[in-house]
C-alpha cells in the first residue's frame, strides 16, 4: 500500500496495538484535532453527511504541492474527530498527487473493524473520498 510517511506511521501505530488499545489511540487522536484557523468558519465548510456525527471539511489546494486540510467535529463525537485527526495528521501538507494516490480503503489497515461499526468506518472513507473529489 502506497501511503505518505506520516499516514504510514499512523497505520503502523494502530497495527502495533490490540483492539482495546486501538480505541484508546483513536480517542487520543480525537483530542489532537486542531481548531479551525480564525479565518475559516464552519458555515463555509463542506458537510460530510455519511459520517454519523456532524463533520465538516475544507480543502485548500491553492498550492497543489502542499494541500491544507481542515476539519470540524464536535468534542462529543470522539470517533469522528479521531478519524478526522488521522486524516489531518497523515495528509495535511502533502501534495495533491500524493493524497490522490492514497487507497480509498487504507483505513482497513488500522484494524478498527473490531472496535467501531462499519457505518463509522464508512464515514472515514467518505472523508477521504470528498478530499479527493476536491483535488480532482
TrEMBL record:
Signal peptide: none annotated. PANTHER family: SUFE-LIKE PROTEIN 2, CHLOROPLASTIC, SULFUR ACCEPTOR PROTEIN CSDE. This is SufE family protein. Belongs to the SufE family. Pfam families: SufE. It comes from the Bacteria. Residues 12-133 form the Fe-S metabolism associated domain. InterPro entries: Fe-S_metab-assoc_dom. It comes from Rhodococcus spelaei.
Amino acid at each position: 500500500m502506497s501511503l505518505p510517511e506520516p499516514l504510514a506511521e499512523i497505520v503502523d501505530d494502530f497495527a502495533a496495538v490490540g483492539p482495546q488499545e486501538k480505541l484508546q489511540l483513536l480517542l487520543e487522536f480525537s483530542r489532537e484535532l486542531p481548531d479551525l484557523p480564525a479565518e475559516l468558519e464552519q458555515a463555509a465548510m463542506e458537510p460530510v453527511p455519511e459520517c454519523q456525527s456532524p463533520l465538516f471539511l475544507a480543502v485548500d489546494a491553492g498550492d497543489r504541492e502542499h494541500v491544507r486540510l481542515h476539519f470540524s467535529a464536535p468534542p462529543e463525537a470522539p470517533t469522528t474527530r479521531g478519524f478526522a485527526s488521522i486524516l489531518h495528521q497523515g495528509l495535511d501538507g502533502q501534495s495533491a498527487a500524493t493524497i490522490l494516490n492514497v487507497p480509498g480503503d487504507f483505513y482497513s489497515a488500522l484494524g478498527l473493524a473490531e472496535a467501531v461499526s462499519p457505518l463509522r468506518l464508512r464515514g472515514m472513507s467518505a472523508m477521504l473520498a470528498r478530499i479527493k473529489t476536491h483535488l480532482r
